[in-house]
Amino acid sequence: RGTGYIWERFMYMIEPVARRVPYLVSFGNHDYDCLSSNSAKDPSHAPGNGFHPSWGNYGDDSHGECGVPMNARFAAPNSTGLGLFWYSVDIGSVHVIQMSTEHDFQAGSVQRAWLAADLAGVNRTVTPYIVLTGHRPMYTDGTADDDMLVAQHLQQELEDLLWTYQVDVALWGHYHSYCRTCPVYKNQCTDSASDSASDSDTAAATGQ
After folding, report:
1. Gap between the Cα atoms of 64 and 49, Å rounded
2. Residue 15 is inside which H or E element, if any?
């Protein structure tokens, strides 16, 4: 939230686990947003003052940090993506993709083009499973209208892409509670006994 000592407290808090267990990080609304006064410091070099679509609730939850503290504290795997903002990595038999819901993911955007290329390049013989992660959820049982609008736009922009490349699981955060869906496509559960079930993804909000 744009306050340095909170970052310090958080790092000390997670140290007992972080020093023993490897983990990957992703940007959320409390880690990244840009205001007009500091957008030049944005390490992602997003155009303008960052991603603030008219239909979304993209405000100033990090008080204009522009991702600077998080980008300085964590390192991303070597990837064709954009550093810590979006990237992919193979872990055993799983191809993990980390996207940023805090950056433009719409058709024509740099991130959308990268995601499509990354998915197209996955060797399912080497990594038969694909897990996509992001902060704001594509599916949610929450009741906040503004978050539902973001979810609908994620579905509109990305769901067909995930379906085409048979993403197995999508992990989301934002809501501070746990929920999961059936294998789902276009707001409908797919029949687990049918051939099409392997083409749908299971969405889980993990309460990040």
Report:
1. 10
2. helix 4-18
